[in-house]
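User: quick one, fold this
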Amino acid sequence: MIDDLKFDQQFLAILSVIASGLALFGMFIFRRFMAERSIAYVIGFLTIIGGILYIPNIGMYYGLHEWTSAHTGGVVDARFIAIVDTAVESPLGQVAMIPMLAWIANSAPAHLKATFFAVMASFTNLALSLSQLGTKYVNQIFLITREVRDRETDAVTVPADYSELGMLLITVALVGLLFPLLAILIVKRTPLRSA
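Assistant:
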C-alpha cells in the first residue's frame, strides 16, 4: 500500500479514523440483528461477509484499481476502493466481538460468572497471541521484502519483492473464512450448540 499504491501516512490515518468511527456506528446498526439471531449464525454471517469484503484487497494486488480507474475516468482508483472497503468492513469488526462476549456470559455458571468471564477473556488474549505467532510463520512461508536503501550512498541494499504477496493475501482470506466456519461446525456438535 505504501510502496506501490502510494498510500501516505495522512491517508492511512484517514482510513483509521473512518474505521474507528464506523465501528461504533456498526454496533448500533447491528444490535437488533445480534439480539434476534443465534451466536453461531451471527459469527457465520460476519465471517462470510468479511471474506467477501477481503476480495478488493486481493484484487488491488492484481491490478483491480488500475482497471476501475481506467473505466471510470480515474474516479474509482486505489484510494477510493480502500475508503469504500474500510467504510463497509469496519462496522463488522467490532460487531464480531459482541457475540463472543455474549456467548461467554451466557455459558458461565451462575455462581462463577466473574471468574468464568476472566478465564475466557484470558483465552481470547491467548488466541490473539496465537494469531500473531501464526502471522510470523505465514510470513516465513511467503517471503515479501520492502526496498531498503543505504542512507549514505542511496544504493539499494535489499530489493523490493512482492511476488508472493498475492498468494499470501489469498491464504489469509481462506484461513479467515474457513477456520471460523470450521469452529462453528465443531461447536454445533458439542453441548455448546445451544448458544
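User: anything notable?
Assistant: The two ends are 40 Å apart (CA to CA).
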